[in-house]
Amino acid sequence: MRTKLALPLHKSLVALVFAACGSPWGVQGQPRVTVPAQAVAAPVGQAGQMTLPITPAQAAVPPAELPGAIYKDAMRPLDVVRGSLDNWSDAELGALSVGMSKARVACMATTAESYTGDDLFDLARLCSFGQDWNDANAAAQAYMASGLEPHRAQAYALAMSALVHLNGVDLATATAREMLRKLPYDAEVAYALIFMKDYLEQEGNPAALTLAAQEHAVIVDTLGHGPLKATNGNAVMGVGALYESAMELAFLERYAGDEAGAALTVAEVEAALKQAGAIPAEERQRTDAIGLQYKLLGSRLPRIEVQKALMSAKAKAPVGPTQLGPDFGAATVLVLFPEWCTQCRGMMKTLTQFAVVNGEVPIHAYGLMFADETEGADPAAHELKLKELQGTATLVVPAAAAKALGAIDFPLGVVVDHGGVVRFIGAIPADAFNGDGYVSKVLTRMLGKAAGTPAAH
Question: CA 390, 395, 400: angle at the middle one, nearest 5?
Answer without folding.
Answer: 140
